[in-house]
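Q: Protein A?
A:
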Amino acid sequence: MGLIVQKYGGSSVRDAERVMNVANRIVEAYDAGNDVIVAVSAQGDTTDDLIAKAEEINPNASKREMDMLLSSGEQISIALLAMAIEKIGRPVVSLTGWQVGIQTDSRYSAARIKHVNSERIRSELDKRRIVIVAGFQGINKFGDITTLGRGGSDTSAVALAAALGAEVCEIYTDVDGVYTADPRIVKDAYKLDDISYDEMLELASLGANVLHNRSVEMAKKYHVKLAVKSSLRRVEGTYVKEVNQVEKMLVRGVTRDNDCAWIALCGVEDTPGKAFEIFSLLSQKNISVDLIIQSIGNGVKKDISFTVTEGDLPVALQILEDNKNIVNMDDIKWTKDVSKVSIVGAGMVNNAGVATTMFEALYDAHINISMIATSEIKISVLVDQKDAERAVVAIHDKFMLK
């Protein structure tokens, strides 16, 4: 058989019963003759609980110390899971990110993987041990523990699969696979058998809480075959790979992202390079800007609107306030009561009228659009947050994703 990398999220290992369930699934793959590496997240709400503990002590703790604290959640998970596999009677070893040799840059709380030293893992696999690895973490050039940000365990698993040439990287979660929409919102949403890397990357970036977008990006780059499966039910999942179909479904999914905030700079000086000056201020603080609208202007003043994540809003507003002399605006407006609703599908690129159909669905549902962004395989609109779920349902129905 071959090498399989599996990843289990926090909900999959949240208590003793689920830890034993996961242990049995891992052993099943091992007993089939495979080498098995498993990346694991912290149990249940452990990460949130640790953040709360930190805020009790120091709400402004450094990111380095937060990484030191948060990485302990995964260490608990891997030890418990290894104990469960020991109980079943199979050889196993648990390893932290630094023991494995996951080397990252030094951006604490949002580190990026630079290299995986596979020597230790290969040594353990040669001894026919199941290797349990702490996801979400690595080590930088200073020997400090770093974390990869929310969803980082997905990225850990894909990095391990790429470094060791795994046949497949199986991402186990509490859903059955990738759906055409969130089944909690759209009752007739259905599971896709497969989806392309590009489509999954867009869906992950636009609020489909199934895979971390950086993990999909890495999987595409290193040609890692991904499978999204349920850790609780024995059903076929969704495969993320290069999909070549003669007649591809026009729209593959509809997403909603509530992690949005809207900022409008009113009465900005209408001079060349002003947009560059504004957005370079934000980029220096690693604030990503998404949807952007700039008015035509009248030669004197213009308005610029854009979106950021809700978490970046306070910092963005402070930057703009501190640099009023550069921004040179009359007023600034903002709100967190917005959502980004998007459609994704590689089949859209060669089909006219997709945007019209989407806008018609929103018109029929009496939902107003405030911003629009498009690419070859996605269309995103900004709507009031109170209308977001209705928008997803209306668009899903209009494209007959049933």
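Q: Protein B?
A:
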Amino acid sequence: MPEATILCSGLIERIGFEDAIFTFKTNKNTIKVIEAIPNHKVGLELLSKQLLDTDTGIIKSTDAINIVGHRVVHGGKHFTDTTEVTPTVKDKIKALSSLAPLHNPANLEGIEVAEAIFPNAKQVAVFDTAFHQSIPEYAYKYAIPNKFSDEHNIRLYGFHGTSHKYVSEKAIEFLGKEHSKIITIHLGNGCSMTAIKDGKSIDHSLGFSPVNGLIMGTRSGDIDQSIIFHLADKFGYSFSEINTLLQKKSGMLGLTGFSDLRDIQAEAEKGNKSCQLALQMNAYRIKKYIGSYAAILNGLDAIVFTAGIGENSIEMRQRVCEDLDYLGISVDIEKNKIRPDKLTVVSKESSKVKILVIPTNEELEIAKQSVGLFKN
């Protein structure tokens, strides 16, 4: 940095499974290992060994790393910008774990492991919620007694902000318009959508915690909240059990038995009715949000697909974009048959709204914000 020359990159998928996949790339070679990686600590230790490997030659010592940037999902009311990690910051991240139980504990573990592996580096937290601080009060406030928002900060926070910020800036640059109306669609194991006007987030599908909105890998997305009380009163579920049900056992996993969209699509092609229905439900929910966000934006210049599913699932993009002609959204079937490594237009020439696939780069965005924190 600031040249943003990539020395190496890595990805660990399916943490907690016997067939976890660790991929590490340098200019010289690619290392791919399939083995059991039980947790994030083991994964980060595996990464550090590759950084110090004599064959790759990335760094001679961990002292060569000056800054380590971390994605942290929930910053609550405490964090509205990128922040250097201190013991107080870690305590607050831990305290917010109840609002993002799938993420904040793992984010904190990543910080603590990195502190041990890179003891001389500054640790920096980049919060998913920060980009959504521009959402107006009438959009972020819930219709519950005011004391809960005023005294207890119960409100919509929004998530995946680093990704939405990065791809929206790329889309605005591509459009070349002074004023823009964009919907960014981040589809991965966690999913969210943002309405972005002139570069500012004005509404977002996730709320107080990252469980509502779209159907996700293991999270339910939007449900009628009375279901929670019905589960407790009728079936005797504790609130802890309901929380686990909605966070870890619902979504695509609850509908199909699979949380990975690749598995679900493969089963759907074999005729699995549950998987076919789940794909239909998933696309339908996204369409509903496109319609509502087009209304609050009063028009659309572009929709953007990003993240693991958004970038790689040809089928999901096709399902989402079909039958949206009234909104001026028309996908080109042939153009859509890609898994791009750069910004790609997949809409028809006649489409009033551009359909863009933009690979997200949260790592670069986190690096930029982390370095920027110490520029002065």
